[in-house]
């Protein structure tokens, strides 16, 4: 009899354990992935990309603080910070990393060849050594390029500056994106028979003196996608205004800061594309077979107030286009 009671008790214990174990499995919360976002510095364009990235992740079902943990790090333009922050992501076993700008992405690539990395705003992924093939990346890295629509931009400058004889370009010599765009823009100007004078800086401290020298020798200035100059745009605009020379930047946020006009990649939408790609990879899509995405056409952004200040006539057709399909600052 005792054996029977013991046997029955054992059955009840086993069934109870199985019930609670099954119930625990049903109520267990799914793993919340960690995404590390590494941004090079504080500047308006990069801030828009970062905001767009969060929105893009959300559109794929990854809501910050709920269904995804976001570890956002800003290196404040410091290379050593990029290294330590990248290592932090790797040490905490982040499920995916996002690099906003080329230096950020290169730093992430230095710490892992396994964790998926999504490029946010890398102008030339192949030239930067991040992927071997933009159509078939083949490794743990893919992403979105912010290559500017250079032909559209140059055509716009010519339209607004019909009497221009010499166009200046200023860029940071250590910025891979800026150097890539300078080379492409130089080739384009040669094809269009436009005289281009190039000026480079090493860091933001050089911008004041170099820009003043440049403004004595050109009729207009073009600024490529350049994080250093974007972060010190007010210095360039101040000097250009004193010289009555218009500045045509590659990025829409730099138009708001005092540029005249541009056809540019919308930085927020670029971020959304980055976040959506990251979300798909978190769901199982492989970076190796995910092509780099490019934005082929830019949106028109015009700073009407700046144009009037410099006496530049903006055709009504362009104003209407900016109002309806782009952005107009009055």
TrEMBL record:
Show the stretches that span the lipid bilayer: none
UniProt xrefs under Gene3D superfamilies: 3.40.50.2300
CDD domains with a match to the protein in the record: PBP1_ABC_unchar_transporter (cd06325)
InterPro entries with a match to the protein in the record:
ABC_SBP_TrpX-like, ABC_transpt-TYRBP-like, Peripla_BP_I
Q: Which NCBIfam families match?
A: ABC_SBP_TrpX
Q: Would you tell me the protein name for this molecule?
A: ABC transporter substrate-binding protein
Species in which this protein is naturally found: Pediococcus damnosus
């Amino acid at each position: 009899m005792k054996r029977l009671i013991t046997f029955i008790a054992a059955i009840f214990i086993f069934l109870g354990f199985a019930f609670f174990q099954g119930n625990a499995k049903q109520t267990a919360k799914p793993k919340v992935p960690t995404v590390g976002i590494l941004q090079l510095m504080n500047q308006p364009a990069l801030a828009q990309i970062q905001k767009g990235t969060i929105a893009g992740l959300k559109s794929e079902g990854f809501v910050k603080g709920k269904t995804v943990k976001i570890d956002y790090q800003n290196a404040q333009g410091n290379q050593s910070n990029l290294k330590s922050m990248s290592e932090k992501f790797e040490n905490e076993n982040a499920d995916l990393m996002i690099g906003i700008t080329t230096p950020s992405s290169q730093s992430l690539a230095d710490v892992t060849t396994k964790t998926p990395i999504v490029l946010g705003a890398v102008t030339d992924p192949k030239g930067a050594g991040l992927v071997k093939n933009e159509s078939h990346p083949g490794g743990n890295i893919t992403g979105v390029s912010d290559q500017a629509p250079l032909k559209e931009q140059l055509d716009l400058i010519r339209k607004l500056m019909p009497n221009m004889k010499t166009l200046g370009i200023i860029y940071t010599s250590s910025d891979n994106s800026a150097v890539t765009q300078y080379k492409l823009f130089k080739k384009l100007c040669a094809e269009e028979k436009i005289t281009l004078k190039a000026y480079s800086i090493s860091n933001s401290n050089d911008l004041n003196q170099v820009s003043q020298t440049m403004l004595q020798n050109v009729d207009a200035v073009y600024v490529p996608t350049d994080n250093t100059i974007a972060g010190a745009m007010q210095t360039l605009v101040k000097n250009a205004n004193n010289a009555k020379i218009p500045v045509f930047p590659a990025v829409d946020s730099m138009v708001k800061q005092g540029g005249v006009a541009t056809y540019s990649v919308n930085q927020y939408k670029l971020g959304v594309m980055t976040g959506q790609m990251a979300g798909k990879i978190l769901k199982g899509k492989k970076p190796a077979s995910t092509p780099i995405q490019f934005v082929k056409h830019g949106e028109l952004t015009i700073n009407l107030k700046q144009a009037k200040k410099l006496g530049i006539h903006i055709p009504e057709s362009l104003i209407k286009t900016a109002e309806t399909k782009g952005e107009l600052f009055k």
